[in-house]
Every structure is written in structure tokens, then in C-alpha cells.
Write a structure and sequence with these properties.
78 residues; alpha+beta; Alpha-Beta Plaits; 4 strands; 31% strand
Length: 78
């Protein structure tokens, strides 16, 4: 059960295809504590991730994104 919901903005360094972005979104949506993850078509380098900070630390988000073979940095979060 998700008790708290915060947002983190993640900057992805590489230029990714829609398919690659959707793959990362899908990967993150399966991570315990993640409520949602999405990147807008107009800002594909920025992904907003809603998550429960009591379940998952923001640095863990980077770990899961970088497992996809991209470089990323946290712009905001707890």
C-alpha cells in the first residue's frame, strides 16, 4: 500500500526512441513503490516518476533507469 506520493524528475542524457522510453516506463512501473513513470513526447529527456519515498529512495530510481543502458541524473526528489 502506497502511503506517500512524491515526484522526481529524471533527466536522461541519451536521445531515445519512443520504444526505448516506453520500455523504461514499463520497467519502472514494475518497481515496488513506483506509482507511475512517464515522459512527455515534447520532452523525451525528462521523465517524471511518482513514488512512495518510504518504500523507495530516489537514488534507486536512477539505478533502475541506468540498468536500461542509459545515463541519467536526478533533477528533483526526496
Amino acid at each position: 500500500m502506497i502511503n506517500f506520493d512524491v515526484n522526481a524528475v529524471v533527466h536522461i542524457n541519451e536521445s531515445l526512441s519512443d520504444e526505448q522510453i516506453h520500455g523504461i516506463e514499463k520497467e519502472l512501473s514494475g518497481v515496488r513503490g513506483v506509482v507511475s513513470a512517464c515522459a512527455h513526447i515534447k520532452t523525451p529527456h525528462l521523465m517524471v516518476v511518482d513514488y512512495d519515498p518510504q518504500t523507495l529512495h530516489s537514488s534507486d530510481l536512477l539505478y533502475h533507469i541506468e540498468r536500461s543502458g542509459v545515463h541519467a541524473s536526478l533533477v528533483g526528489g526526496i
